[in-house]
Amino acid sequence: MIRLLKDLTDRYVPLDNDNVADAVFFGGDQLTDERVQCAQVATNDSSTSKRRLEGFISKSEDFHRLMNLMEAIFKLTYSTESAEDPCTVHYYRNILRYRNVKGPVKNAFRAYKLLYYTIGDAICVAMFRNELGSMDVEDELTLQDLSRMSVEQKKEWLNGVCEKLVKKWFFEESDDVFQETREVLENPHHEENYWTSTLESGRFHCHHCSKDYKRVSSLKAHESEKHKIPLKHSTKKKRETKDEVHCYIMMLFKLVMLHRNFDSAVDMGDGSRCVRSAKYELPIYHKTHKIKYTISSIHTIAMSSGLLNPDQEERFIGNRFVNLQGGVNSNIALDEYIEMINRDTKASCTGHKTKESILRHSKEYPLLVQLTNQLEAASSMGTRKGFHHLPSYCSDVQKVAKDLLEHDIFRQNENRKPNKKLPDLDKNPFLNCTKDLSVMLHRHRPLSPYGRLRDSTF
Protein backbone atom coordinates (compact mmCIF):
# COMPACT_ATOMS: atom_id res chain seq x y z
CA MET A 1 0.00 0.00 0.00
CA ILE A 2 2.85 2.39 0.79
CA ARG A 3 4.48 1.59 -2.57
CA LEU A 4 1.17 2.21 -4.37
CA LEU A 5 0.52 5.52 -2.60
CA LYS A 6 4.05 6.74 -3.37
CA ASP A 7 3.52 5.99 -7.06
CA LEU A 8 0.10 7.69 -7.09
CA THR A 9 1.56 10.72 -5.28
CA ASP A 10 4.13 11.22 -8.06
CA ARG A 11 1.40 10.92 -10.68
CA TYR A 12 -1.55 12.87 -9.33
CA VAL A 13 -0.72 15.01 -6.27
CA PRO A 14 0.29 18.69 -6.76
CA LEU A 15 3.79 19.02 -5.28
CA ASP A 16 6.03 21.90 -4.25
CA ASN A 17 9.55 20.42 -4.35
CA ASP A 18 9.28 17.61 -1.77
CA ASN A 19 6.13 18.85 -0.04
CA VAL A 20 2.45 18.44 -0.87
CA ALA A 21 0.92 21.63 -2.28
CA ASP A 22 -2.66 20.36 -2.04
CA ALA A 23 -4.06 17.01 -0.90
CA VAL A 24 -6.55 15.05 -3.02
CA PHE A 25 -9.21 12.59 -1.85
CA PHE A 26 -8.78 8.83 -2.07
CA GLY A 27 -12.12 7.02 -1.85
CA GLY A 28 -13.17 3.42 -1.41
CA ASP A 29 -14.82 1.09 1.05
CA GLN A 30 -13.96 0.97 4.76
CA LEU A 31 -11.14 -1.56 4.21
CA THR A 32 -9.44 0.73 1.66
CA ASP A 33 -9.87 3.70 4.00
CA GLU A 34 -8.32 1.72 6.85
CA ARG A 35 -5.34 0.59 4.77
CA VAL A 36 -4.56 4.13 3.62
CA GLN A 37 -4.63 5.31 7.23
CA CYS A 38 -2.29 2.48 8.30
CA ALA A 39 0.15 3.40 5.51
CA GLN A 40 0.14 7.04 6.65
CA VAL A 41 0.75 6.05 10.28
CA ALA A 42 3.62 3.78 9.20
CA THR A 43 5.35 6.71 7.45
CA ASN A 44 4.45 9.35 10.05
CA ASP A 45 8.08 9.91 11.16
CA SER A 46 9.24 11.03 7.68
CA SER A 47 10.63 14.54 7.25
CA THR A 48 8.35 15.85 4.45
CA SER A 49 4.62 15.76 3.80
CA LYS A 50 5.18 13.89 0.53
CA ARG A 51 7.02 11.08 2.29
CA ARG A 52 4.36 11.04 5.03
CA LEU A 53 1.85 10.31 2.21
CA GLU A 54 -0.18 13.39 3.11
CA GLY A 55 -1.07 13.92 -0.54
CA PHE A 56 -4.17 11.78 0.00
CA ILE A 57 -7.11 12.12 2.36
CA SER A 58 -8.96 8.82 2.45
CA LYS A 59 -12.74 8.59 2.77
CA SER A 60 -15.55 6.03 2.62
CA GLU A 61 -17.71 6.30 -0.50
CA ASP A 62 -21.49 6.26 -0.67
CA PHE A 63 -22.30 3.01 -2.52
CA HIS A 64 -20.61 0.90 0.16
CA ARG A 65 -22.27 3.01 2.86
CA LEU A 66 -25.69 2.33 1.29
CA MET A 67 -24.94 -1.38 1.18
CA ASN A 68 -23.83 -1.46 4.81
CA LEU A 69 -26.83 0.56 5.97
CA MET A 70 -29.04 -2.02 4.23
CA GLU A 71 -27.12 -4.78 6.07
CA ALA A 72 -27.84 -3.03 9.38
CA ILE A 73 -31.55 -2.72 8.50
CA PHE A 74 -31.52 -6.41 7.53
CA LYS A 75 -30.10 -7.33 10.94
CA LEU A 76 -32.88 -5.46 12.74
CA THR A 77 -35.86 -6.54 10.62
CA TYR A 78 -35.20 -9.79 8.73
CA SER A 79 -35.51 -13.39 9.88
CA THR A 80 -36.06 -16.47 7.72
CA GLU A 81 -37.97 -18.01 10.63
CA SER A 82 -40.73 -15.42 10.31
CA ALA A 83 -42.17 -16.79 7.05
CA GLU A 84 -45.54 -17.49 8.72
CA ASP A 85 -45.72 -14.14 10.54
CA PRO A 86 -47.86 -11.65 8.55
CA CYS A 87 -46.43 -8.18 7.94
CA THR A 88 -42.79 -9.26 8.26
CA VAL A 89 -40.19 -8.74 5.52
CA HIS A 90 -39.57 -12.45 4.90
CA TYR A 91 -43.33 -13.06 4.76
CA TYR A 92 -43.67 -10.49 1.96
CA ARG A 93 -40.55 -11.85 0.25
CA ASN A 94 -42.39 -15.16 -0.14
CA ILE A 95 -45.74 -13.58 -1.03
CA LEU A 96 -44.14 -11.49 -3.79
CA ARG A 97 -41.87 -14.40 -4.89
CA TYR A 98 -38.67 -12.38 -4.77
CA ARG A 99 -36.51 -15.48 -5.07
CA ASN A 100 -33.30 -13.54 -5.66
CA VAL A 101 -33.59 -12.12 -2.12
CA LYS A 102 -31.35 -14.64 -0.40
CA GLY A 103 -27.97 -14.97 1.26
CA PRO A 104 -25.82 -12.04 2.42
CA VAL A 105 -27.01 -8.54 1.53
CA LYS A 106 -23.70 -7.70 -0.18
CA ASN A 107 -24.31 -10.49 -2.73
CA ALA A 108 -27.85 -9.34 -3.62
CA PHE A 109 -27.97 -5.67 -2.62
CA ARG A 110 -30.30 -4.49 -5.38
CA ALA A 111 -32.72 -7.37 -4.79
CA TYR A 112 -32.93 -6.57 -1.07
CA LYS A 113 -33.30 -2.86 -1.85
CA LEU A 114 -36.20 -3.54 -4.23
CA LEU A 115 -37.98 -5.66 -1.61
CA TYR A 116 -37.55 -3.11 1.19
CA TYR A 117 -38.54 -0.19 -1.04
CA THR A 118 -41.65 -2.08 -2.20
CA ILE A 119 -42.70 -2.61 1.43
CA GLY A 120 -41.79 1.00 2.29
CA ASP A 121 -43.94 2.39 -0.52
CA ALA A 122 -46.79 0.06 0.50
CA ILE A 123 -46.64 1.39 4.08
CA CYS A 124 -46.85 4.94 2.69
CA VAL A 125 -49.87 4.02 0.53
CA ALA A 126 -51.55 2.35 3.52
CA MET A 127 -50.86 5.41 5.72
CA PHE A 128 -52.29 7.75 3.09
CA ARG A 129 -55.47 5.68 2.71
CA ASN A 130 -55.81 5.26 6.47
CA GLU A 131 -55.56 9.04 6.88
CA LEU A 132 -58.23 9.68 4.23
CA GLY A 133 -60.55 6.95 5.55
CA SER A 134 -60.29 4.54 2.61
CA MET A 135 -59.21 1.07 3.77
CA ASP A 136 -59.35 -0.75 0.40
CA VAL A 137 -56.64 -0.12 -2.20
CA GLU A 138 -59.04 -1.06 -5.00
CA ASP A 139 -61.51 1.72 -4.10
CA GLU A 140 -61.11 5.21 -5.49
CA LEU A 141 -60.04 7.79 -2.95
CA THR A 142 -62.65 10.34 -1.95
CA LEU A 143 -60.81 13.64 -2.23
CA GLN A 144 -61.88 17.23 -2.13
CA ASP A 145 -62.49 18.89 -5.49
CA LEU A 146 -58.98 19.36 -6.86
CA SER A 147 -60.15 20.55 -10.29
CA ARG A 148 -60.71 24.05 -8.96
CA MET A 149 -57.22 24.26 -7.49
CA SER A 150 -54.14 25.63 -9.21
CA VAL A 151 -51.03 23.49 -9.51
CA GLU A 152 -49.42 25.27 -6.56
CA GLN A 153 -52.54 24.74 -4.42
CA LYS A 154 -52.56 21.02 -5.25
CA LYS A 155 -48.89 20.76 -4.24
CA GLU A 156 -49.60 22.64 -1.02
CA TRP A 157 -52.52 20.33 -0.19
CA LEU A 158 -50.50 17.16 -0.89
CA ASN A 159 -47.48 18.42 1.06
CA GLY A 160 -49.78 19.26 3.97
CA VAL A 161 -51.10 15.69 4.10
CA CYS A 162 -47.56 14.28 3.82
CA GLU A 163 -46.26 16.59 6.56
CA LYS A 164 -49.07 15.44 8.84
CA LEU A 165 -48.23 11.77 8.18
CA VAL A 166 -44.51 12.33 8.79
CA LYS A 167 -45.14 14.07 12.12
CA LYS A 168 -47.63 11.41 13.19
CA TRP A 169 -45.80 8.22 12.19
CA PHE A 170 -42.11 9.07 11.76
CA PHE A 171 -41.59 11.53 14.63
CA GLU A 172 -44.44 10.07 16.75
CA GLU A 173 -45.64 13.61 17.57
CA SER A 174 -42.31 14.32 19.33
CA ASP A 175 -39.71 16.95 18.55
CA ASP A 176 -36.65 14.72 18.57
CA VAL A 177 -36.31 11.02 17.67
CA PHE A 178 -32.71 11.30 18.94
CA GLN A 179 -33.70 12.45 22.39
CA GLU A 180 -32.14 9.48 24.21
CA THR A 181 -28.89 9.69 22.23
CA ARG A 182 -28.71 13.46 22.62
CA GLU A 183 -29.16 13.25 26.41
CA VAL A 184 -26.17 10.89 26.63
CA LEU A 185 -23.89 12.95 24.38
CA GLU A 186 -24.75 16.33 25.91
CA ASN A 187 -24.41 15.26 29.54
CA PRO A 188 -20.83 14.14 30.39
CA HIS A 189 -22.02 12.84 33.77
CA HIS A 190 -24.75 10.59 32.34
CA GLU A 191 -24.53 6.99 33.60
CA GLU A 192 -23.65 5.81 30.07
CA ASN A 193 -20.57 8.08 30.21
CA TYR A 194 -19.30 6.57 33.47
CA TRP A 195 -15.87 5.51 32.18
CA THR A 196 -15.11 8.76 30.31
CA SER A 197 -16.51 11.29 32.79
CA THR A 198 -13.27 11.54 34.85
CA LEU A 199 -10.95 12.33 31.92
CA GLU A 200 -8.73 15.26 32.89
CA SER A 201 -5.42 16.36 31.37
CA GLY A 202 -5.20 13.14 29.39
CA ARG A 203 -5.59 10.91 32.50
CA PHE A 204 -8.56 8.84 33.72
CA HIS A 205 -9.15 9.31 37.45
CA CYS A 206 -10.67 6.64 39.65
CA HIS A 207 -14.15 7.46 40.97
CA HIS A 208 -13.34 6.07 44.43
CA CYS A 209 -9.67 6.84 45.17
CA SER A 210 -6.81 9.11 44.09
CA LYS A 211 -5.32 6.84 41.41
CA ASP A 212 -5.33 7.85 37.75
CA TYR A 213 -4.48 5.97 34.56
CA LYS A 214 -3.45 6.66 30.98
CA ARG A 215 -5.89 4.14 29.48
CA VAL A 216 -9.56 3.59 30.19
CA SER A 217 -8.96 -0.18 30.11
CA SER A 218 -6.59 0.20 33.08
CA LEU A 219 -9.22 2.23 34.94
CA LYS A 220 -11.81 -0.49 34.31
CA ALA A 221 -9.46 -3.19 35.58
CA HIS A 222 -8.61 -1.16 38.71
CA GLU A 223 -12.21 -0.35 39.67
CA SER A 224 -13.34 -3.90 38.93
CA GLU A 225 -10.61 -5.46 41.08
CA LYS A 226 -10.21 -2.93 43.90
CA HIS A 227 -13.70 -1.42 44.18
CA LYS A 228 -15.79 -4.31 42.80
CA ILE A 229 -17.45 -2.13 40.15
CA PRO A 230 -19.06 -4.31 37.44
CA LEU A 231 -17.70 -3.70 33.96
CA LYS A 232 -21.08 -4.24 32.40
CA HIS A 233 -24.18 -2.76 33.95
CA SER A 234 -27.42 -4.64 33.50
CA THR A 235 -29.56 -2.94 30.88
CA LYS A 236 -32.54 -5.28 31.01
CA LYS A 237 -35.79 -3.39 31.22
CA LYS A 238 -39.16 -4.61 32.30
CA ARG A 239 -40.96 -5.88 29.25
CA GLU A 240 -43.81 -3.58 28.33
CA THR A 241 -47.11 -4.76 26.93
CA LYS A 242 -47.29 -3.44 23.40
CA ASP A 243 -48.42 -4.29 19.89
CA GLU A 244 -45.17 -5.81 18.63
CA VAL A 245 -46.35 -6.12 15.02
CA HIS A 246 -47.30 -2.43 14.91
CA CYS A 247 -43.95 -1.49 16.47
CA TYR A 248 -42.15 -3.64 13.91
CA ILE A 249 -43.88 -1.95 10.97
CA MET A 250 -43.19 1.53 12.35
CA MET A 251 -39.52 0.72 12.89
CA LEU A 252 -39.29 -0.76 9.38
CA PHE A 253 -40.95 2.34 7.91
CA LYS A 254 -38.46 4.70 9.58
CA LEU A 255 -35.40 2.66 8.58
CA VAL A 256 -36.50 2.34 4.95
CA MET A 257 -37.23 6.07 4.75
CA LEU A 258 -33.75 6.90 6.08
CA HIS A 259 -32.15 4.56 3.52
CA ARG A 260 -34.28 6.01 0.74
CA ASN A 261 -33.37 9.54 1.81
CA PHE A 262 -29.68 8.66 1.44
CA ASP A 263 -30.27 6.83 -1.86
CA SER A 264 -32.22 9.74 -3.38
CA ALA A 265 -29.48 12.14 -2.23
CA VAL A 266 -26.99 10.14 -4.32
CA ASP A 267 -29.35 10.22 -7.33
CA MET A 268 -29.70 13.99 -7.01
CA GLY A 269 -25.98 14.59 -6.40
CA ASP A 270 -26.80 16.19 -3.03
CA GLY A 271 -23.46 15.85 -1.24
CA SER A 272 -24.58 17.75 1.86
CA ARG A 273 -27.44 15.32 2.46
CA CYS A 274 -25.18 12.30 1.84
CA VAL A 275 -22.63 13.48 4.40
CA ARG A 276 -25.33 14.47 6.90
CA SER A 277 -26.81 10.97 6.60
CA ALA A 278 -23.77 9.66 8.51
CA LYS A 279 -25.30 11.17 11.68
CA TYR A 280 -28.37 8.94 11.24
CA GLU A 281 -26.30 5.88 10.34
CA LEU A 282 -23.97 6.11 13.34
CA PRO A 283 -26.43 4.92 16.06
CA ILE A 284 -27.79 2.17 13.78
CA TYR A 285 -24.30 0.80 13.04
CA HIS A 286 -23.43 0.94 16.74
CA LYS A 287 -26.66 -0.84 17.67
CA THR A 288 -26.06 -3.65 15.14
CA HIS A 289 -22.35 -3.99 16.09
CA LYS A 290 -21.00 -2.90 12.70
CA ILE A 291 -17.91 -1.45 14.37
CA LYS A 292 -15.89 -0.45 11.31
CA TYR A 293 -18.75 1.51 9.78
CA THR A 294 -19.45 3.11 13.14
CA ILE A 295 -15.86 4.39 12.99
CA SER A 296 -16.34 5.42 9.36
CA SER A 297 -19.42 7.47 10.30
CA ILE A 298 -17.50 9.21 13.11
CA HIS A 299 -14.73 10.12 10.64
CA THR A 300 -17.19 11.33 7.98
CA ILE A 301 -18.97 13.58 10.48
CA ALA A 302 -15.66 14.96 11.79
CA MET A 303 -14.28 15.75 8.33
CA SER A 304 -17.45 17.62 7.35
CA SER A 305 -17.52 19.51 10.67
CA GLY A 306 -14.24 21.38 10.83
CA LEU A 307 -11.42 18.80 10.55
CA LEU A 308 -10.71 19.87 6.94
CA ASN A 309 -9.99 23.37 5.72
CA PRO A 310 -12.94 25.10 3.95
CA ASP A 311 -11.73 24.27 0.43
CA GLN A 312 -11.14 20.61 1.26
CA GLU A 313 -14.48 20.39 3.06
CA GLU A 314 -16.28 21.77 -0.01
CA ARG A 315 -14.60 19.16 -2.25
CA PHE A 316 -15.26 16.40 0.28
CA ILE A 317 -18.99 17.19 0.21
CA GLY A 318 -19.36 17.98 -3.49
CA ASN A 319 -17.13 15.49 -5.32
CA ARG A 320 -18.91 12.22 -4.53
CA PHE A 321 -20.78 11.39 -7.74
CA VAL A 322 -20.53 10.80 -11.48
CA ASN A 323 -23.29 11.18 -14.08
CA LEU A 324 -22.87 8.75 -16.98
CA GLN A 325 -26.32 9.13 -18.57
CA GLY A 326 -26.88 12.88 -18.46
CA GLY A 327 -30.00 14.60 -17.20
CA VAL A 328 -31.17 15.28 -13.66
CA ASN A 329 -31.35 12.70 -10.84
CA SER A 330 -29.12 10.24 -12.73
CA ASN A 331 -25.99 10.35 -10.56
CA ILE A 332 -24.23 7.32 -9.13
CA ALA A 333 -21.64 7.14 -6.37
CA LEU A 334 -17.99 7.12 -7.45
CA ASP A 335 -17.31 3.69 -5.95
CA GLU A 336 -20.31 2.21 -7.77
CA TYR A 337 -18.76 3.44 -11.04
CA ILE A 338 -15.49 1.73 -10.09
CA GLU A 339 -17.40 -1.50 -9.30
CA MET A 340 -18.96 -1.35 -12.79
CA ILE A 341 -15.53 -0.91 -14.37
CA ASN A 342 -14.15 -3.82 -12.32
CA ARG A 343 -17.05 -6.03 -13.45
CA ASP A 344 -16.49 -5.24 -17.12
CA THR A 345 -12.74 -5.70 -16.78
CA LYS A 346 -13.07 -9.11 -15.12
CA ALA A 347 -15.55 -10.22 -17.79
CA SER A 348 -13.22 -9.03 -20.56
CA CYS A 349 -9.97 -10.55 -19.25
CA THR A 350 -11.34 -14.04 -18.59
CA GLY A 351 -8.87 -15.63 -20.99
CA HIS A 352 -5.83 -13.77 -19.65
CA LYS A 353 -4.65 -15.31 -16.40
CA THR A 354 -1.15 -13.99 -15.84
CA LYS A 355 -0.12 -10.51 -14.76
CA GLU A 356 1.86 -9.95 -17.97
CA SER A 357 -1.03 -11.07 -20.17
CA ILE A 358 -3.55 -8.88 -18.34
CA LEU A 359 -1.28 -5.81 -18.58
CA ARG A 360 -0.61 -6.48 -22.26
CA HIS A 361 -4.30 -6.70 -23.11
CA SER A 362 -5.58 -4.10 -20.62
CA LYS A 363 -5.83 -1.33 -23.22
CA GLU A 364 -8.19 -3.49 -25.27
CA TYR A 365 -10.92 -3.77 -22.60
CA PRO A 366 -12.58 -0.31 -22.90
CA LEU A 367 -12.52 -0.62 -26.70
CA LEU A 368 -14.08 -4.09 -26.58
CA VAL A 369 -16.94 -2.86 -24.38
CA GLN A 370 -17.64 0.04 -26.75
CA LEU A 371 -17.33 -2.23 -29.80
CA THR A 372 -19.86 -4.70 -28.37
CA ASN A 373 -22.38 -1.93 -27.67
CA GLN A 374 -21.90 -0.38 -31.13
CA LEU A 375 -22.23 -3.78 -32.85
CA GLU A 376 -25.52 -4.53 -31.08
CA ALA A 377 -26.86 -1.08 -31.97
CA ALA A 378 -25.75 -1.25 -35.63
CA SER A 379 -27.16 -4.73 -36.20
CA SER A 380 -30.48 -3.88 -34.46
CA MET A 381 -30.12 -6.86 -32.16
CA GLY A 382 -32.36 -5.21 -29.57
CA THR A 383 -32.28 -6.05 -25.92
CA ARG A 384 -31.18 -9.45 -24.71
CA LYS A 385 -34.16 -11.62 -23.86
CA GLY A 386 -34.64 -14.49 -21.42
CA PHE A 387 -37.47 -16.47 -19.93
CA HIS A 388 -37.60 -14.25 -16.83
CA HIS A 389 -39.76 -11.13 -16.70
CA LEU A 390 -39.75 -8.26 -14.24
CA PRO A 391 -42.75 -8.16 -11.91
CA SER A 392 -45.03 -5.14 -11.84
CA TYR A 393 -43.74 -2.85 -9.11
CA CYS A 394 -47.11 -1.10 -8.86
CA SER A 395 -49.06 -4.35 -8.39
CA ASP A 396 -46.55 -5.56 -5.77
CA VAL A 397 -46.96 -2.32 -3.79
CA GLN A 398 -50.75 -2.63 -4.01
CA LYS A 399 -50.62 -6.25 -2.83
CA VAL A 400 -48.53 -5.39 0.24
CA ALA A 401 -50.60 -2.27 1.03
CA LYS A 402 -53.82 -4.28 0.83
CA ASP A 403 -52.41 -6.89 3.23
CA LEU A 404 -51.29 -4.20 5.69
CA LEU A 405 -54.75 -2.60 5.69
CA GLU A 406 -56.45 -5.98 6.09
CA HIS A 407 -54.32 -6.60 9.20
CA ASP A 408 -55.33 -3.14 10.47
CA ILE A 409 -51.69 -2.40 11.15
CA PHE A 410 -52.23 1.20 12.35
CA ARG A 411 -54.59 0.29 15.18
CA GLN A 412 -52.95 -0.73 18.47
CA ASN A 413 -53.65 -4.30 19.62
CA GLU A 414 -51.62 -5.27 22.69
CA ASN A 415 -52.23 -9.00 22.19
CA ARG A 416 -50.68 -9.04 18.71
CA LYS A 417 -47.22 -10.65 18.69
CA PRO A 418 -45.17 -12.40 15.99
CA ASN A 419 -44.39 -16.09 16.47
CA LYS A 420 -40.68 -15.44 15.90
CA LYS A 421 -39.18 -12.93 18.33
CA LEU A 422 -37.11 -10.41 16.35
CA PRO A 423 -34.01 -8.73 17.86
CA ASP A 424 -35.57 -5.35 18.58
CA LEU A 425 -39.16 -4.16 18.37
CA ASP A 426 -38.99 -0.51 19.41
CA LYS A 427 -40.97 1.86 17.20
CA ASN A 428 -38.03 4.23 17.37
CA PRO A 429 -34.92 2.46 15.97
CA PHE A 430 -32.68 5.01 17.72
CA LEU A 431 -33.64 3.79 21.19
CA ASN A 432 -31.10 1.67 23.12
CA CYS A 433 -28.23 2.74 20.82
CA THR A 434 -26.08 4.47 23.43
CA LYS A 435 -24.36 1.63 25.30
CA ASP A 436 -20.57 2.37 25.18
CA LEU A 437 -21.22 4.97 22.46
CA SER A 438 -19.33 7.71 24.32
CA VAL A 439 -16.22 5.51 24.57
CA MET A 440 -16.41 4.82 20.82
CA LEU A 441 -16.72 8.54 20.06
CA HIS A 442 -13.77 9.49 22.31
CA ARG A 443 -11.60 6.66 21.04
CA HIS A 444 -12.13 7.26 17.32
CA ARG A 445 -12.61 11.02 17.09
CA PRO A 446 -9.83 12.04 14.66
CA LEU A 447 -7.45 14.91 15.35
CA SER A 448 -6.01 15.02 11.82
CA PRO A 449 -7.31 14.15 8.32
CA TYR A 450 -4.33 11.79 7.91
CA GLY A 451 -3.84 8.47 9.69
CA ARG A 452 -7.13 8.75 11.57
CA LEU A 453 -6.56 5.66 13.71
CA ARG A 454 -7.99 5.36 17.19
CA ASP A 455 -6.59 7.08 20.24
CA SER A 456 -4.54 4.38 22.00
CA THR A 457 -5.20 5.88 25.45
CA PHE A 458 -8.77 4.69 25.14
Automatic annotation (TrEMBL):
Keyword set includes Zinc: yes
Molecular function GO terms recorded: zinc ion binding
Entry keyword set: Metal-binding, Zinc, Zinc-finger
Keyword Metal-binding: yes
C2H2-type domain residues: 204-238
Superkingdom per UniProt: Eukaryota
InterPro entries noted in UniProt: DUF6589 (IPR046496), Znf_C2H2_type (IPR013087)
Pfam families tied to this protein: DUF6589
Protein name: C2H2-type domain-containing protein
